[in-house]
Description:
The structure is a single chain. By secondary structure, this protein is an alpha+beta fold. It has two domains: about 40 residues; about 120 residues, no CATH class. It is built from five helices and eight strands. Strands 1, 2, 3, 4, 5, 6, 7 and 8 form an eight-stranded antiparallel sheet that branches. A hairpin with a 7-residue loop joins strand 6 and strand 7. Helix 3 packs antiparallel against helix 4. It starts with a helix and ends with a strand.
Amino acid sequence: MSVRELLNRNPSITFGIAAGVIVIAAVATLTASRSERADVSETRPVSEYYTTDGGATYFAAPADQVVPFVHDGKEAVLAHVVHCGNEAPHVQYLQRLSPETIRQTEIITKERLPGWEGEIDRLKKDGCQFAEPGSKEWIGANSPKLGAFLGRMAKCPDGTEPVVVLPN
């Protein structure tokens, strides 16, 4: 009797084999995704640049800050510092979480309901706001203006790509 005939006559064996393959695939997928997340977290910077004056100046602080935060009595936001060609490094754009996102994050963190960490990640992604240095207009992560904004930020005046500058 061939394997095919055996499987055709015994559907429970076929089902068991299929279920086993699915379980093995699921375990392999979970293992791979966890190792990828571990690799990403290991490459995150220890510190980043922040600004309290709209990007005119910037300072280094630990990368785990929730922005905005208070620094020397002023609101500090994330400053994405780059350099273009031979130019000195400068703030290309600013980033923060919206006030509503911070409020929701604090509530979720305090309650710690099932799945709270994933919800925090989603809030931080959807609740990001971006601005040009010196601008009072913040553009939300889901705004139709965001694509054009990031397109402008992705190029240097000479058309080349900016090089990201991180603190030592």
